[in-house]
Amino acid sequence: xxxxxxxxxxxxxxxxxxxxxxxxxAQGIVDLRNRIxxxxxxxGIDQWREGEFDxxxxxxxxxxxxxxxxxxxxxxxxxxxxxxVLWEDLRIWGKQxxxxxxxxxxxxxxxxxxxxxxxx
Length: 120
Prior knowledge:
Blueprint (H helix, E strand, L loop, with lengths): L18 E2 L5 H17 L12 H9 L3 E5 L7 E8 L3 H4 L8 E3 L4 E5 L7
Parallel strand pairs: 3-5
Antiparallel strand pairs: 1-2, 2-3, 4-5
Helix pairs in contact: 1-2
């Protein structure tokens, strides 16, 4: 896997289709997240820390259909990019009175929180 860029100008599109994650992607998602955490920490940004995600938890989230990935064409278990879509994120936001959409992104990984769809 290539090194993370030093600047946004160095970003290049990630090749491959976005697919529903499979359980064998869990470790790759965690590895990618840890890699980004190290990159951030190395630049003095204390937003993410290595080891915050466990592959077993990510595998459960995959079974619930929360994760999509772009996998490496050379090694399908290597995750080049990922996105998690949630109706709520209690770990980050706690219980909210009203649904709210929040999406933070990165070329290499994206986590999204979206409100529940309107019920008829």
